[in-house]
Amino acid sequence: MTKVLKEKNGSDILTLAIETSCDETSAAVVRNGREVLSNVISSQIDLHKKFGGVVPEVASRKHVENVNLVIQESLDVAGIKLKEIDQIGVTYGPGLVGALLVGVSAAKALAYALKVPLIGVNHIEGHICANYIEDKTLTPPFLCLIVSGGHSHLVHVKDYGIYEVLGKTRDDAVGEAFDKVARAMGLGYPGGPLIDGLAQKGDPEAIKFPRVYLEADSFDFSFSGIKSAVLNYLNGERQKGNKISLENVAAGFQQAVTEVLVHKTIEGAKQKKTDTIVLAGGVAANSGLRKLLTEEGKKQGLRVKYPSLTLCTDNAAMIGCAAYYDSLGGHRADLYLNAVPNLKLGEKYVRFSQE
């Protein structure tokens, strides 16, 4: 398949990618996996703010309204005609099933009409691949900490598309914990940026929240305990009539979470004998996490890399990058492709048809 693509378009492969796993409708045109010609993102944050979080049915309906417009805009920005596209990449899991189905349906229709390969992409893999776009020289192996509203994974990236999951959350994802704590503090949604902003004004040592490391040899995470500790602190102080410093609460919470994330990531890098650590996912935008991981990594002689803020969020450019490397590995989907809301990292779509 790779040979066919290259013969068709010289040395270039143009991927049209679609991402609709949660509340961002995004489409991108990516050349040869790492050169982003366009990356259009239509966010629904303002729509969901009044609900305090993403409402799946509302998100799905908004994707239906936006997806064709966003795809066309991505082509216009890239200066590419639809007939020039060599393959279609789309997120088919994990995520909200209704939201995923919108993107998958659009991608299948385009692949069928254009008679080009269809590549089903794992959303988590897409976050990892955002780092290939950010740093054109980055190559496996490396260790990746993926932290977002729905995912917390520590992954050894052995090669393109080959992953060993060292650990993941046993309860709340990191971003989920940030959102729940922010709600309890009366900050609103999304919680991550709001807590990060407050934390920079507070004292991380003023309030000591627990650090949960689990078993000595475990790379798994657990954030429900610290979330409960923050809620108990807030309720206790309110019952006593004490004035609460939200800045100190935010700083203490963020410090406790980032210390655990950084400790396990550094230990994972040591175990796998890799000198490179990369961040991925929405929480990779957190300034406290970036700062602490960079500092601790430097002490251990480790390189720490992370994507720009746009590439930390859900976006189609990262899906286009992942689709490119999946296609090089011979992984293609067919028109039976369906949404898989609980798709695991490393799982590849098995085609029903033989093309």
Please give the structural blueprint.
Layout: H1 2-8, E1 14-19, E2 24-31, E3 35-43, H2 45-49, H3 56-78, E4 87-93, H4 97-114, E5 118-122, H5 123-134, E6 142-147, E7 152-159, E8 162-168, H6 174-184, H7 191-199, H8 224-240, H9 246-272, E9 276-280, H10 287-299, E10 303-305, H11 309-312, H12 316-328
Helix pairs in contact: 3-4, 5-12, 6-7, 6-8, 7-9, 9-10
Keyphrases for this structure?
Nucleotidyltransferase, domain 5; single chain; 355 residues; transferase; 2 domains; 12 helices; 5-stranded mixed β-sheet
The CATH fourth-level homologous superfamily of the largest domain: ATPase, nucleotide binding domain
Give the overall form: globular
The gyration radius over C-alpha positions equals: 21 Å
Regions with little confidence, pLDDT below 50 for 5+ residues: 1-9
How do the SSEs run, as a string of H and E? Answer: HEEEHHEHEHEEEHHHHEHEHH
| Strand adjacency order, main sheet | 3-2-1-4-5
CATH architecture of the largest domain: 2-Layer Sandwich
Proportion of beta-strand residues:
15-25%
Distance between the termini: 11 Å
What is the strand tally?
10
The helical percent reads: 40-55%
What is the count of DSSP helices, taking H or I runs of 4+ residues? 12
Under CATH at level 1, the class of the largest domain stands as: Alpha Beta
Domain module count: 2
CATH T-level fold name of the largest domain: Nucleotidyltransferase, domain 5
Give the rounded overall mean pLDDT.
Answer: 92
Main beta-sheet annotation: 5 strands, mixed
Which structural class do you get from the secondary structure elements? alpha/beta
